[in-house]
Prior knowledge:
Pfam families: YabP. The protein has helices spanning about 5-15, 20; strands at about 25-30, 35-40, 40-45, 50-55, 60-75, 75-90.
Amino acid sequence: MKRKGNLKEHFAGVLEIPGDLAYQEPIVTVIGRDQAVVENYRSILRYTREEIVLITLRGKLTICGKCLRIPCYTPWEMQVKGCISKVILH
């Protein structure tokens, strides 16, 4: 008997659904050093001016930097501004 994950991968491939939609993979778009857009996050675990930690379906996502802030967000997408030094997917 096939595992559930393999069946999901098979259908996503047959239907040509992008992985970010099929598996709700986190998408991080970094624009220069001062802006990032995070899609497909679940919740905010920690939010300080130096570190923002988000929960995703694949684990934790950490954005480090200085003067970080979240000017706007929806349940699906978040904008982060500040001096971004690194992005880590745990």
